[in-house]
């Protein structure tokens, strides 16, 4: 019996988990928030906890580690002094990172394609009219957020959905059919499921799981790491991050734990996106 190819396997995982996301969309919102937080903490954070294995040779590793720590400190400082600015920077950096991982292109415009695609994905996934999303954003920036200030917001989301489907068609992916199916799944989940759950599905499965699958082949192309080895390698920095979130929650008791989780993600995403660019 023929084995399932890696790309087919990923598409199958995306499809099955998309159905689970649809089911989860029917649970009460507070349960959805709790489940999303647990999934992001336990399955999303570990993919960024492998960054130490993406650093250069030993002679440059200390320098890259110093840059990594400085980036984290800078991000946390901006959150304290200018939370709205940091939220915008976090979203833009995340958009580029998502697009950098999803779009296959050898074009000199790849960075621009990645940014436009990633922004489109976030606009589709994060519906500013969703009460839970508004609550999270307001908690992060400390001010009310009103989607009505964005004119023709609904039309913008539909245009973004078209870009999520269209941009990958111009990529150099060797299997465009699976890329198209992934885009269709992203749009379906985004429009059928509450936004936090839709984002969690994309971040945990489409992004994190797929990235870790690529990473275990990148670190050793001749003998790809097993998932067990990958999880063990990610454990130390994952635990350190979770401890940091706990400390932050104690120091800033006014912030919801989920908001603290997103702040931690933003602190890791800036240096992580720079290192992970090497994988793709």
Can you walk through the features of this model?
This protein is mainly alpha-helical. 75% of the residues lie in helices and 0% in strands. It is built from 11 helices and no strands. α2 packs across α10. The longest helix has 25 residues, at 227-251. It starts with 5 loop residues before the first helix and ends with a helix. The model is unreliable at 1-5 (pLDDT under 50).
Short structural description:
It contains 11 helices and no strands.
Q: What is the mean pLDDT? A: 86
Could you tell me the radius of gyration in angstroms? 18 Å
Strand and helix order: HHHHHHHHHHH
**DSSP strand content:** under 5%
What is the general shape?
globular
The major beta sheet can be summarized as:
none
Number of beta-strand segments: 0
* Helical amount: over 70%
- From the helix content, strand content and strand pairing, which structural class follows? mainly alpha
Please mark out the parts with pLDDT under 50 across 5 or more consecutive residues, or reply none: 1-5
């Amino acid at each position: 019996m023929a084995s399932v190819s890696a790309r087919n396997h990923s598409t199958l995982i995306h499809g099955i988990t998309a159905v689970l996301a649809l089911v989860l969309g029917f649970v009460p919102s507070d349960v959805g928030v709790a489940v999303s937080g647990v999934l992001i903490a336990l399955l999303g954070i570990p993919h960024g906890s492998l960054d130490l294995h993406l650093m250069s040779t030993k002679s440059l590793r200390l320098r890259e580690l110093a840059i990594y720590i400085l980036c984290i400190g800078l991000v946390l400082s901006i959150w304290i002094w200018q939370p709205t600015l940091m939220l915008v920077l976090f979203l833009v950096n995340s958009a580029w990172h998502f697009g950098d991982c999803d779009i296959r292109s050898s074009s000199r415009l790849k960075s621009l394609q990645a940014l436009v695609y990633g922004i489109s994905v976030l606009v589709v996934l994060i519906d500013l009219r969703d009460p839970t999303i508004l609550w999270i954003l307001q908690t992060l920036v400390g001010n009310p957020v009103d989607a009505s200030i964005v004119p023709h917001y609904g039309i913008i989301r539909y245009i973004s959905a078209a870009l999520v489907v269209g941009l990958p068609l111009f990529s150099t992916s060797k299997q465009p059919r699976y890329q198209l199916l992934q885009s269709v799944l992203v749009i379906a989940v985004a429009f059928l499921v509450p936004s936090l759950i839709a984002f969690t599905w994309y971040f945990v499965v489409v992004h994190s799981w797929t990235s870790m699958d690529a990473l275990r082949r990148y670190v050793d192309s001749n003998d790809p790491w097993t998932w067990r080895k990958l999880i063990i390698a990610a454990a130390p920095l994952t635990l350190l991050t979770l401890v940091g979130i706990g400390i932050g929650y104690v120091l800033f008791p006014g912030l919801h734990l989920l908001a603290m989780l997103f702040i931690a993600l933003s602190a890791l995403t800036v240096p992580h996106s720079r290192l992970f660019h090497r994988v793709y």
